[in-house]
Structures are given as C-alpha cells and as structure tokens.
Amino acid sequence: MTVRNLFLLPGDGIGPEAMGEVRKIIAYMNEAKNAGFVTDEGLVGGCAYDAHGAAISEEDMGKALAADAVLFGAVGGPKWDSVPYEVRPEAGLLRLRKDLQLFANLRPAICYPALASASSLKPELVDGLDILIIRELTGGVYFGEPKEIIDLGNGQKRGIDTQVYDTYEIERIAGVAFELARTRNNRVCSMEKRNVMKSGVLWNQVVTATHKEKYADVQLEHMLADAGGMQLVRQPKQFDVIVTDNLFGDMLSDVAAMLTGSLGMLPSASLGAPDAKTGKRKALYEPVHGSAPDIAGKGIANPIAMIASFAMCLRYSFGLVAEADALEKAIANVLDSGIRTGDIMSAGSRQVGTAEMGDAILAEF
Amino acid sequence: MTVRNLFLLPGDGIGPEAMGEVRKIIAYMNEAKNAGFVTDEGLVGGCAYDAHGAAISEEDMGKALAADAVLFGAVGGPKWDSVPYEVRPEAGLLRLRKDLQLFANLRPAICYPALASASSLKPELVDGLDILIIRELTGGVYFGEPKEIIDLGNGQKRGIDTQVYDTYEIERIAGVAFELARTRNNRVCSMEKRNVMKSGVLWNQVVTATHKEKYADVQLEHMLADAGGMQLVRQPKQFDVIVTDNLFGDMLSDVAAMLTGSLGMLPSASLGAPDAKTGKRKALYEPVHGSAPDIAGKGIANPIAMIASFAMCLRYSFGLVAEADALEKAIANVLDSGIRTGDIMSAGSRQVGTAEMGDAILAEF
Ligand SMILES: CC(C)[C@H](C(=O)O)[C@@H](O)C(=O)O
Ligand SMILES: CC(C)[C@H](C(=O)O)[C@@H](O)C(=O)O
C-alpha cells in the first residue's frame, strides 16, 4: 500500500479548528479509499513559542523536511505581538518556506459563483473569475541581507532591507508560471517595477529570455506592479496567470483574494523544485486567510480555505487529480445549496458552524 | 504686486495637452484677478532625452529649484522603452523628487459623486469616498544603495535594491500625516510590513513615538500593508489619512485611485520641508495618471487631473484657499452638468474633447 506522509501544523487562532475538518476528510479517505495517509502533528507560531521559545522547534522542522507534504493552518495573534522579532509567529512560516526551499507559491483567486455578490466589486466583473497568482517565495526583500536596524547615534536609527534576485531564481519561478499557464488559458502576465528597481530590470529580462527559449507558445505580457494592482481592480478577468516577486506577490494576491468575495475560502500551495532522483517536490499548503484571533475557539470559523488547501495537496503532491476535483466540487455544491459560515452569510442562506460546514462538504465528497 | 513663479514641465504623451488647459486658467487668473503668475517652461522625460540626451537638463533642474512651484504633466512612452536606464523618462521625475527633496506626496482619492457608478466597486462602497494617502517620496527602495545588477559569471546576474529608512525621514512624513489629519477627520492609518521588514519595524516604532509625543489627539491605527490593500478594496471609506512608505505608497495609491472610478481625474502634490527662513516649501504638482501615449495628440485626453493638480498648487504653495475651493467646485459642477471626456463617458452624457472640457471648467470658475 502507498504510504503518504502528511505533517500537520495547525498553528494559532482558527488554525486548529480549520485543520480539524481536514482531519475528518483524511480519515474518510483512509477508510473508504485506502488512501494510506499517515499523519503527524507539530507546533508552529505562537503556540510553538509558548511551548519551547521558538516559532518552530528543530524537531518539527525535521519532520516538515521529511514529510511528503505539510498542511499549515495559520499563525499569530495579539498575545505574541511583542515577542522578540526573531521568534515572532511569522518566523516559523518564513523558516519553513526558506528551509524547505518552497520557492513557488500558487495562489488561485477564484470567485465561487454562489458568492459573486459578496465581492465589493460589481458582480459582472468577478463572476467566473479564475486567476492564478504565482508568487516567488524564497527570495526578494523577505530574505535579502543586510536586514537590520542600525543605531546611528543622536537618537537616529536606520532600518535596512535588501531586495535580491539572481537569474536562476527568476528563471525557475517563470518556468512554473509558463508550465501552469499551458494547463490553463496559456497566458502569463509578469509584474515588477523595472522603471524604479534594478531587480525589476533583471526580472523583466530573465522572464523575457525564458519565454523566448522555452515557452514561446505561451502568451506573455509585462506590466508594472502598480499598474497591475490597478488592473486587478479595474478588470480582473483580463488575467490568467500572474507571476511576480515575493513582496509584490504578497500585496497583489491579497488584493486579488479580496476581489473574489471569497476570502476565507482561498487556498494556497507552496512548492519546491522536483527532487533530482524521485521527482517529488517539497510542499506546504495553507489558507490565504490569517489566524483570526477574534473568532478563534468559537467553532464558527470557515474551514473552506483549509479544505481547499488540502485539495491542492491531493493534486500537486499526490497526483490525486480526480479526488482533488471531487473535493473542490463538493465545496462548490455545498455553497450552491445555501449553507454558509458566518463570514459569508447572506440573506436566505442557512448559517452553520465550522464542524457542520466540514461535515456538509464531507457528505458531498 | 505678488510675483508667483511657476515652472511648467508638460513632459510626454498627453502631458502637453493637459497642461494647455491649465495655462488657460493661469492666464485668466492673471488677467481677471491680478494673480501675478509668471511662468517658464522646460522639458522632462522622453522629450528631454530627444532634445539633449538626459531625462531633464541641468538648466531645467535649476529652474525647477528656483521656482515657487513646479507643474508636471506626465512622462514616458513606447518610443523610449529601450533608452539606457539612467536616462529613461522616469529618471527625470525621480531626480526632481530627490533634488527638490519632495518627501511628502499627497494623493487624495476622492470619488466625484457624478462618477460613482464608473467605479468597479459597488457604488455604495465608494460614493462620497475621500481618503488622503500620504506617501513618503524621497526614501525607501527607490533611492537606497546598493541598487545595481552584478554579473556573477556563469550566465548568472544578481539584481539588488535596498530599502533604507532613517528615523528622521519617518518622523517628518508622520508629522505631515498627523497635521493634515487634524484638518480632516483626525484619523491616521500607518501601513508597513513590520512582520517581514526591519524598515517596517522602525517605521512602526517611529510613527508610534511621534504620535505619542506630539499628536496624541489624533486617532492612530497600524495595518500591515497587504491587509491594507485588502481593506482598501473591502471597505475604503473606513480610512481618513493613510501614511506609508515610497513603494507601498506607489501600489496602494494606485489601487485607491482606481477604486474611485475617477482615475484620470486625480491630482497629487509633492512637498518639501518648509524653508527655515521663508517658511516656503518646494513643491511639484502632477496628475496621478500617466502619459497615455495611445491617445496623445488627439485632443481627447481628460485634463481634469492636471487642473485639479493646479488647484492643489493654489492651496498648498500659495495659500489661495478660496481659489482652490472654487476651482475644485468648478470641476464638480461641470461633471454634474453631464459633460465628459471619452475616458469617463457614460450613456446620457455629452462627450467633449480636452479643450472643451478645459473651457467648461474655466467658464464655471
Ligand atoms: C504572515 C506573513 C509573513 C505572510 C507574508 O508576508 O508572506 C503572509 O502575509 C502571506 O501572504 O503569506
Ligand atoms: C513613473 C514612476 C517612476 C512613478 C513611481 O513609481 O513613483 C509613478 O508610478 C508614480 O506613482 O508617480
């Protein structure tokens, strides 16, 4: 029997509740379909800091590195707002991304038809929206050195961050974007600020060269990142795949997620390079939403983004494409049937809690 | 008689056409109201490169430095897409900002009621919207060193940009934001990425300290910049004044501008520190929109952003508050009367060209 090793890091806030619903689906797949999932679980973020003074322990890092895939909930909360910078909750997530070399972050921004009216955009602009944002995740200003605060004396300090991109980093993320575009509508839009940033100039050159050498069949467009933000708001359906750097990707994917009206519903996948021998990619799957400490522990959080992240896991880590499709379809069906958690509640729908939503999706699966 | 020195830099694309309409208003104010404007004119951007191989000449830089205020149109176009980085059209604008030390960029995002339905957001979310984004303009990743592309050999290059902020830079832009908030709804939201960037940590600390020391009467909130982008889309009216760094300000102000449905209508002011002796600030006023090369020279461009930029000039450089109010009112009245340029045309309105729009506003003024 195939063994599939999953490492679960529920984290803080609503992370554990959302992860609970995924656990049900895993159990069902093991029982009913002999899926062979073996799970282990660790701590990340504030709860890890509370337990052992670090945002993730060495032991858990080891387990994450050894697993076939990591499922990640959410980290952070007011309780840890003033812990030292090096051990803040986010540091756990950033270390996972860096040490597992998860350079490719896939953030689908799709609009569930049942929720089109929940968007702040006019429904006709988002109905049927299906964009895939590919964000570079292990480079740029997130990790470049120097990154420090220097004391200049006289009451003056200097905060420094460094944006660094090497040719190979741009090449490999561009490759992911072009490959995935081929499975979709075959269009890539690359975004940077080449009019201001040297890393943007290099980004533009390398994407252009990669396209010319290997992916000339894909339609490629370049856009300045600020104009890209505008165009996302103006006419989001013009895009198919967007590829951009770590910081712009952070901003643009959040704007795109909010546009869909389906925030709290959106999953993401962070992938490494295929292993030279096995062809396997390291991978981490996490919802786009945060830890929502204000509603944590109440059993009302929306588990859909976490479940949809597990669907991405089925697809990208285990090649279980039919199962991934079925799980995504189950989510859409449940929404169509008018079942809603509080965050997406609207008149005429039936409001349920986290567990009921999970059960409804499992029943449709 | 007061002499008021204006230096006009129409630039490229639709810049000259838009500036033409401001020239009419200046002439009228001189004639009818003895306003004492003395104008001189120079080249910036692509046209400056064509004339003398630089994005702005030393002579014109001298004139910009000597003027009471600079009116700037727009720069750039496909013609100059492959000129060397150092002399690209944008370099002229960046040099003006840096050498005139225009550290405070004021970008109002207002929704003209007559245009609320032109927004891609639902009208009720933007109707009456009035946000002021204060963007730091002479620091951050735009100007920090090193900023270069290094050849690493083996076909590999490295693109580097550096984000740098010193305490005094954050203090002075925070001061501008708090001061202006006091003239509005007394609320400031500061945006950075302190969870990832050390410059963001310092930004957050200095804004907090400045607030505590001098502006405790103003309501202050902090938001991560990615969450800020989301909130702008979700519920833009929650904001009064937003203060943020150069790069986040670039992105967020463009998103905000697009939300209003009034892009092509929005002005901006870039201000320096008050002179120790005279109290005067160096200043540059420019529309938020670009050079729109596709419609340049056709007499159809919307001159409203340029005219509204001149209204900001009347207000901030010359203290002509009544005149600024009257000019802004004239713009709103003309829109209310149903006159539109092509970019904001809608059924039932009357479409006019650049000059007619300018004349209509002048007639209302
Ligand atoms: C939590 C934070 C460090 C993270 C980021 O900035 O990358 C988050 O905003 C995200 O987009 O995943
Ligand atoms: C033209 C460009 C250099 C400029 C910037 O990035 O600042 C523009 O986008 C702006 O917002 O004024």
TrEMBL record, chains A, B:
Organism superkingdom: Bacteria
Signal peptide: none
Any one biological process term the GO annotation gives: L-leucine biosynthetic process
Bound cofactor: record note: Binds 1 Mg(2+) or Mn(2+) ion per subunit.
Residues given in the record as substrate binding sites: 97, 107, 135, 226
Record's subcellular location: Cytoplasm
A GO MF label: NAD binding
Keywords: Amino-acid biosynthesis, Branched-chain amino acid biosynthesis, Cytoplasm, Leucine biosynthesis, Magnesium, Manganese, Metal-binding, NAD, Oxidoreductase
Feature type site, description Important for catalysis: 142, 193
Cofactor (UniProt): Mn(2+); Mg(2+)
Pathway membership, UniProt: Amino-acid biosynthesis; L-leucine biosynthesis; L-leucine from 3-methyl-2-oxobutanoate: step 3/4
Residues that coordinate or bind NAD(+): 77-90, 290-302
Enzyme class: oxidoreductase
EC number: 1.1.1.85
Isopropylmalate dehydrogenase-like domain ranges (all copies): 5-361
Keyword field contains Iron: no
Xref: InterPro entries: IsoCit/isopropylmalate_DH_CS, IsoPropMal-DH-like_dom, Isopropylmalate_DH
Keyword Transmembrane helix among record annotations: no
Reactions accelerated catalytically: (2R,3S)-3-isopropylmalate + NAD(+) = 4-methyl-2-oxopentanoate + CO2 + NADH
Binding site for Mg(2+): 226, 250, 254
PROSITE patterns reported in the protein's UniProt record: IDH_IMDH
Quaternary state and interactors: Homodimer.
Function: Catalyzes the oxidation of 3-carboxy-2-hydroxy-4-methylpentanoate (3-isopropylmalate) to 3-carboxy-4-methyl-2-oxopentanoate. The product decarboxylates to 4-methyl-2 oxopentanoate.
The name this protein goes by in its record: 3-isopropylmalate dehydrogenase
Organism, scientific name: Rhizobium lusitanum
Source organism phylogeny: Bacteria, Pseudomonadati, Pseudomonadota, Alphaproteobacteria, Hyphomicrobiales
